[in-house]
Specification:
By secondary structure, the protein is of the alpha+beta class. It is built from four helices and 19 strands. The strands form two sheets. Strands 1, 2, 3, 4, 5, 6, 7, 8, 9 and 10 form a ten-stranded antiparallel beta sheet that branches. Strands 11, 12, 13, 14, 15, 16, 17, 18 and 19 form a nine-stranded antiparallel beta sheet that branches. A hairpin with a 5-residue loop joins strand 11 and strand 12. Helix 1 packs antiparallel against helix 2. The longest helix is centred in the first third of the chain and has 19 residues. The radius of gyration is 39 Å and the shape is elongated. 24% of the residues are buried.
Length: 299
C-alpha cells in the first residue's frame, strides 16, 4: 500500500483574484491566438485586482492671498498727525496710482513705491523729494509727515478717514478724501503753456483767474480782458471753451496781449484736470501741462 503525500498549499494573498477551473480549462482548450488574448485579459484582471488606491494625504489647500488695499486712484489730504490736528492750509497730500505714491508734505513734493496686502501697508522706504527751503514750522510738519508715511505698517478706514498705523496699531496719521470736482471752485493761474513747448510762470500785471460754475459756465480774467464760455467734466475728461472775451487793448506790461492769447489757447486745449491740496493742474490730451493754478480762496 503506497503512502500518500500531502502537498502544502501556499496561501493566496488577500485581495488577489482567483483563477477558476473554468478559466484554466479555457486557456488549455483555446487556439493559439485566442489563448494569447485570453492570457492578456487574465493578466490585466490580476493586475487590476492587485492595485491599491493611493492614500489620501489629508492636506488642506492654502487660503487665497489677501487682496491689496483698495487705494488705486485715490487721493487724500492730511488731517492729523499722531492724533493732533494739523494747521489749516498745510496742503499735505497723498495719492495712490498703480504701485506708486505721490503728494506734498506741505513743503516739498515726494514720490516713491508702495505695497500692501490685506491690512498691511508699506510706503517707501525710499521716497524721492524736491529740496525747496521752507519756514521752520512748515519744515517740522513736513518731516513729521514723512516719518509717518515711512513708518506705516498697517491701515484702517473709519468712515471716510484713512488711518495710517505703525507697529502695534499706533496711530501715525489720519487723512481725509481729496476733493476732485471743479464745479464751484475758483483758481489763480500761476503758470501756463506758451504753445512753444514750454511752460512759463505768470509775471507782473493783473492776476489771471479761472472760475468753474456749477451750471456748466466758466469765466475769469486773462490779464487784460475777461473771458467766459462753457466747460464740461465727465469720466475724467474736461473740456473748456470755446471762450469769448471782451475787446479791450492793454499795453502794460508790454507782452500782456501776447500772454493773454497764449493763456486762452492753453485753456481751450485742456483735456484732464487733477486737484491736489490747494493746487490744480490742467493738462492737454498728450499729458502736457496747459495751466497750473492755486486755489483763489487759499491766498
Amino acid at each position: 500500500m503506497r503512502s500518500s503525500r500531502l502537498r502544502a498549499v501556499r496561501p493566496r494573498p488577500s485581495g488577489m483574484p482567483t483563477m477558476t477551473s473554468s478559466s484554466a480549462h479555457a486557456l488549455a482548450a483555446c487556439p493559439l491566438a485566442a489563448c494569447l488574448l485570453a492570457a492578456c485579459l487574465l493578466a490585466a484582471t490580476l493586475a487590476a485586482g492587485c492595485a491599491t488606491k493611493p492614500a489620501s494625504s489629508g492636506a488642506v489647500a492654502p487660503p487665497p492671498p489677501a487682496a491689496p488695499p483698495p487705494f488705486e486712484g485715490t487721493a487724500w489730504t492730511l488731517a492729523s498727525l499722531e492724533g493732533r490736528p494739523v494747521p489749516s492750509g498745510s496742503d499735505a497730500t497723498l495719492r495712490f496710482e498703480g504701485e506708486r505714491v505721490s503728494g506734498s508734505d506741505g513743503c516739498n513734493r515726494f514720490a516713491g513705491p508702495w505695497s500692501g496686502r490685506g491690512t498691511s501697508l508699506r510706503i517707501g522706504p525710499n521716497l524721492a523729494a524736491t529740496q525747496r527751503a521752507c519756514p521752520d514750522a512748515q519744515r517740522a510738519l513736513a518731516d513729521a509727515y514723512g516719518r509717518a508715511l515711512i513708518g506705516a505698517t498697517a491701515w484702517r478706514i473709519d468712515g471716510t478717514t484713512l488711518r495710517l498705523l505703525g507697529d502695534g496699531g499706533t496711530p501715525l496719521a489720519a487723512l481725509e478724501p481729496q476733493p476732485t470736482g471743479l464745479a464751484g471752485t475758483a483758481w489763480r493761474i500761476v503758470a501756463y503753456n506758451t504753445g512753444r513747448q514750454s511752460v512759463t510762470s505768470v509775471g507782473v500785471g493783473a492776476p489771471l483767474t479761472i472760475e468753474f460754475g456749477t451750471a456748466g459756465g466758466v469765466r475769469g480774467s486773462a490779464g487784460c480782458n475777461t473771458y467766459s464760455g462753457a466747460w464740461t467734466e465727465s469720466a475724467g475728461r474736461v473740456t473748456i471753451g470755446p471762450l469769448r472775451t471782451t475787446r479791450m487793448a492793454c499795453a502794460d506790461p508790454p507782452d500782456v496781449m501776447e500772454r493773454e492769447a497764449a493763456v486762452l489757447r492753453a485753456l481751450e486745449s485742456v483735456a484732464t484736470a487733477r486737484r491736489e491740496g490747494d493746487r490744480l493742474e490742467l493738462r492737454t490730451a498728450t499729458g502736457a501741462i496747459a495751466v497750473s493754478s492755486v486755489e483763489a480762496r487759499a491766498r
